[in-house]
Amino acid sequence: MNQLAAKAETRNAQPWWRGAAIYQIYPRSFFDSNGDGIGDLPGITARLDHIAGLGVDAVWLSPFFKSPMADFGYDVADYRDVDPIFGTLADFDALIARAHALGLRVLIDQVWAHTSDQHAWFIESRASRANPKADWYVWHDAKPEGSPPTNWQSVFGGPAWTWDARRGQYYMHNFLKEQPQLNCHHPEVQAELLAITRFWLDRGVDGFRIDAINFSMHDPEFRDNPPAPDDGTPRTRPFDFQLHIYNQSHADIPGFLERLRGVFDEYPDRFTVAEVGGADADREMKLFTAGGNRLNTAYGFDFLYASRLTAAGVRAALQNWPAGGSWPSWAFENHDAPRAVSRWTRPKTADAFARMKMLLLAALRGNIFLYYGEELGLDQVEIPFEALQDPEAIANWPRTLSRDGARTPMPWSSTAPELGFTSGRPWLPVGPNHEALAVDVQDADPASLLAWTRRVLALRGASPALRTGDIAFHDAPGELLAFERAAEGERLLCLFNLGDVAQHWTPANASHWRPLLATGGAGDWTFAPHSGLIARYEA
């Protein structure tokens, strides 16, 4: 019996994904096996032991499909093949086999709102108005004076329309002009996406993270978006000046998700999670996961772009997902957001804060996502303009913080060139502060953040209350966050001081609470800044 089967036997009361801890890998930056400076699939396979050793349930791979890399893989040119910079389909199959042997599930990104302009579908679609794929993308005539069909704006800046002389029409793109919008209203497009789903599930993939799913369908009447009210939020791009009513979030999206779920239900133990951003994300996340016949869960951006981590913010986010409704997912970091320790604390308190943050993440009700290097406490790297790779940051310089700073190479060895990521020149520079945080350094230190992360995830994995239990909040002073988790007769008290001032709070029946894990000087019901405690109730 491999590790995956063993895990399944021990957790047969709930689906494996409910309460799972999932580790996100940005393939370009994880480990380079061939010295070209870019991480690859064999590199991931070679380092799966590290991930399994953390105690997570699954890995999520950001896109590795064939792509011209205008947006580093989020512009897919072939949904059924691996880009040569990452390896081959055989390399992917080897990764799946090794992950499953280690007890790890494998999730992959699916980017269905758009393709690359180099995809064969788009090349055929733009060739004429009368070919078999003419309507697979969103095309529209110019207005009488030649301007774009609507006022819709691209997320990355400028109009969401680009003129194409071959068709004598505009095509739509919510992101880069190299990412033309798929017409997901079209039944043939939907059928092809479902066929792609079966292709990867048949290869042993355990689930999908579906990128930008609320951008997958537009208003077929092509109505203009209204202006957004000025609420004082800084506007760094034209996209910020509109309410995005008609370029995204069409009411037909849930119907397609039900068709997708029908395919997933043909395969045992598979999992779906949606990425949903934007001003209407809360409603859409619940809509896309409602009823047991759509997606399993969704995660938004409650914490990913938050400038501060506050007790009120965490409480509000979790109370927005009450028991009996849809199942939430949470992330503090990902490939699109600045590293949390750089957003939420200062360098001198980064280690203490990272330990408290990891314990808090593990205590949240829902699935949790860790971003590669988060277990090491990696900070955001400052990338100078001349070294930028991120197309969004280049287009909106200097108002948009580069995503490159959260995508720098994983530091494996403190003494090796490029910190062991590659034998060549890395595609992005290694972080100047990352030598002291390298895996080999922390592996040798039983008091490291890496060792702490393993302890924290081991507790979550063994605790029914933390994985799937209910949550109930206590009122506590200042920035002290206090809540209980309970399931299967287990009752846990979770306390975190998110502020810079020590706090004191004593629960009822204090003598019955036995500490399980504590960090940052939490003890005797006094909580230093950036401290945390999880305790079990014993009658």
Describe the protein's architecture and organization.
The protein has 539 residues and is an alpha/beta fold. The protein has 2 domains: 3-115 and 186-460, TIM Barrel (Alpha-Beta Barrel), CATH 3.20.20.80; 470-537, Golgi alpha-mannosidase II (Immunoglobulin-like, Sandwich), CATH 2.60.40. 25% of the residues lie in helices and 17% in strands. It has helices at residues 3-10, 41-46, 48-54, 89-101, 120-127, 187-202, 253-264, 281-288, 311-319, 340-344, 350-363, 391-395, 439-443, 449-462, 464-468; strands spanning 21-25, 58-61, 65-66, 78-82, 105-111, 139-140, 161-164, 169-172, 207-211, 271-275, 297-299, 327-331, 367-371, 470-474, 480-487, 490-497, 503-504, 513-519, 526-527, 532-537. It has an 8-stranded parallel barrel with strand order 1-2-5-9-10-11-12-13. β15 and β16 form a beta hairpin. The radius of gyration is 23 Å and the shape is globular. It starts with a helix and ends with a strand.
Described by strand count, sense and barrel closure, the largest sheet is: 8 strands, parallel, barrel
Kindly state the mean pLDDT as a whole number? 96
Global outline: globular
CATH superfamily of the largest domain: Glycosidases
CATH architecture of the largest domain: Alpha-Beta Barrel
CATH level-3 fold name of the largest domain:
TIM Barrel
Whole-angstrom Rg: 23 Å
Q: What percent of residues are in strands?
A: 15-25%
Terminal CA distance reads 38 Å
